[in-house]
Design goal:
Layout (H helix, E strand, L loop, with lengths): L6 H18 L24 E3 L1 H9 L3 H11 L10 E3 L3 E4 L3 H14 L13 E6 L10 H19 L3 E8 L4 H16 L15 H14 L13 H21 L6 E4 L9 H11 L3 E4 L2 E4 L10 E4 L7 H15 L4 E7 L6 H10 L7 E6 L2 E5 L2 E2 L12 H8 L1 H10 L6 E4 H4 L7 H21 L15 H11 L1 H11 L4 H21 L13 H24 L9
Parallel strand pairs: 4-5, 4-10, 5-6, 10-11, 12-14
Antiparallel strand pairs: 1-3, 2-3, 7-8, 8-9, 12-13
Helix pairs in contact: 1-3, 2-3, 4-16, 4-19, 5-13, 5-17, 6-7, 6-8, 9-10, 12-13, 13-18, 15-18, 15-19, 16-18, 16-19, 18-19
């Protein structure tokens, strides 16, 4: 009997075999078989899967689709995975999973445990997800939080789909923004020693810069104080960047995000770094040109609208040059098969030229996926929240975590497609009711855990439950929903759309609540989870255990906790 991971392919093979048998029997003409993958019917009453093959065969077979559907259905071999197929206008073949197959999935979930719904889709290929990578010139804001939730959940889904995944944060510790940060920090540092020094016109005015300068003064005194009028000491700027990175690391840790690699931009320009190597490669391949005192990447010859400067006339590399070197390091030096960059939507214009450069340096542009996410609008009481309580200019991720918690923040950030602008309802995120989808999902897990705990108190166990006793519609519906998790993981891993995870979590929670509430509303004691019928109780406890595992699995992929009590 097939299992949940390959049931779709198994059923497709049954339908294709039925077509061949129908041809051999003379019920259908021998024509080329078109591609017709099984679909999920919109109405669950029509079954678990539907084949549209009769509709696709109609023209070649010169028969009505419904007649073709009947001919194929008549030849579908008996199989323990499904009930006898049915047909429906205008030419669907509907397939319903058998109760025996569904019951067996409970054992598969329990046996798989924390690895339930894992796939071999990635076949161990190296994948890298680089996300957040905010300039270390200030605290993370709520927009960075959305990128963090998206990137981390996507990395977890890819790992579940069989990829060897690395999470990476690219630390922009080189370039003009770093210089401006250093100059701003030094101005604030000097002010603490009584010097009347303004911050740069394009500097960072946030209060956090004053706090950072104060921290350095407390720890190092006047160590970094140069004579008046002299430039900021390089060591001060480097220290400031390190301290900001530490703060970013701490914030992301509180958000449940942990990286395998913190990659410093400066390392691209160190001896043996990727920059010189990739520039030499591009020149060797004829992709660089020197003109107007600068070095240009001749991207127009590779299909772009224009050429782009990679080394300015003063000898400094551009942001684009850094990205080319960085992706050369990803694809060529470190050998990632799949690279995903999670960026803010304001980087949209950079995507095409980076893909072009990736092809020029020996990578496959198709294996570079750039996921762009839109802005976040915070609302409280129906009004837009524009200013931070503390800093004034930005609302930090730390503040959001403090107000609603990391689980609610992550769930809401994932709920919408990355490409859609989202409104984050702060009031809803903390509401302790089913209106709040986070509460609704986590409460389902807590209820599952509570049932198992109550059973243990009554010395009841799910260990030897006979799942063949589970025939109620709500029981089978819950199993069907649990089975969908592998499909959801595959969808996320192939479309790079993590919003499917929270929507699935809500559907699974709904199936459980329907299962539990239906039994609670019945006067018949045999329709409760814990009943006087010990054998039936053990069977239902086995289903409860499996549902708890499946729900904890999707919550874990989203980076959320699975509470046992609420």
């Amino acid at each position: 009997m097939a299992n949940a991971r390959d049931i779709r392919q198994h059923l497709e093979s049954l339908v294709n075999a039925a077509v061949r048998d129908a041809v051999a029997a003379g019920d259908l003409p021998d024509v080329a078989l078109p591609e017709a993958p099984l679909e999920r019917p919109k109405d669950a009453a029509n079954g678990d899967f539907a084949s549209t093959l009769p509709l696709r065969l109609a023209r070649a077979a010169m028969k009505p689709p419904l007649e073709i559907a009947r001919a194929i259905a008549a030849h579908v071999p008996a199989d323990p995975s499904i009930d006898p197929p049915t047909v429906a206008p205008p030419g669907f073949i509907n397939l319903r999973l058998s109760a025996a197959f569904l019951q067996r999935q409970i054992e598969e979930v329990i046996a798989s445990g924390a690895s339930y719904a894992d796939l071999a889709l990635g076949r161990g290929k190296k994948a890298q997800v680089e996300f957040v990578s905010a300039n270390p010139t200030g605290p993370l804001h709520v927009g960075n939080g959305r990128g963090a939730a998206i990137g981390d959940a996507l990395a977890s889904a890819l790992a579940a789909a069989g990829y060897d995944v690395e999470r990476e944060y690219y630390v922009n510790d080189a370039g003009t923004q770093t210089d401006t940060f250093s100059d701003t920090l030094y101005a604030r540092y000097q002010q603490l020693f009584g010097r009347d020094v303004p911050i740069p016109a394009d500097g960072y005015p946030g209060e956090y810069m004053v706090e950072l300068a104060g921290e350095i003064k407390r720890e190092a005194g006047d160590t970094y104080l140069s004579p008046p009028g002299e430039a900021a000491p390089a060591a001060l700027g480097q220290l400031g960047i390190r301290l900001m990175v530490d703060r970013i690391r701490e914030t992301l840790g509180a958000f449940g995000v942990h990286y395998d690699q913190w990659y410093n931009e400066k390392s691209l320009y160190d001896a043996g770094g990727a920059f010189q190597e990739v520039m030499a490669l591009l020149r060797e391949r004829g992709h660089l040109a020197d003109r107007e005192g600068a070095t240009w990447f001749t991207s127009s010859e590779l299909g772009e609208d224009k050429d782009n400067v990679v080394i300015r006339s003063d000898g400094r590399p551009t942001y684009y040059a850094s990205d080319i070197a960085y992706h050369y390091d990803k694809f060529v030096r470190r050998g990632f098969s799949l690279v995903i960059d999670v960026w803010g939507a304001d980087h949209h214009g950079h995507v095409s030229r980076l893909k072009t450069a990736t092809g020029a340096i020996g990578g496959n542009p198709e294996n570079l996926q750039v996921l762009l996410y839109q802005l976040v609008v915070l609302k409280r009481g129906g009004e837009v929240v524009r200013l931070s309580k503390r800093g004034g200019e930005i609302i930090t991720l730390d503040e959001l975590i403090e107000e609603v918690g990391k689980d609610a923040a992550r769930f809401f950030f994932l709920l919408r497609s990355p490409g859609a602008q989202m409104e984050f309802d702060l009031d809803l995120a903390v509401k302790q009711s089913s209106e709040n989808p986070v509460f609704y999902v986590q409460y389902a897990h807590a209820r599952l855990a509570s049932m198992l705990e109550r059973a243990r108190e009554q010395r009841l166990s799910a260990e030897d439950g006979d799942v063949s006793r589970l025939t109620q519609p709500q029981e089978l519906a819950l199993i069907r929903e649990m089975m969908r998790l592998s499909d959801v993981i595959e969808t996320v891993a192939t479309t790079f759309e993590p919003q499917h995870l929270p929507h699935y979590a809500m559907s699974l929670a709904t199936a459980f609540h329907a299962f539990n509430d239906a039994f609670k509303q019945q006067s018949d004691p045999s329709l409760k989870v814990i009943t006087e019928d010990e054998a039936l109780t053990k069977a239902r406890l086995r289903l409860v255990l499996a549902a708890k595992i499946a729900l904890a699995r999707v919550l874990g992929i989203m980076g959320m906790t699975a509470p046992d009590r609420m």
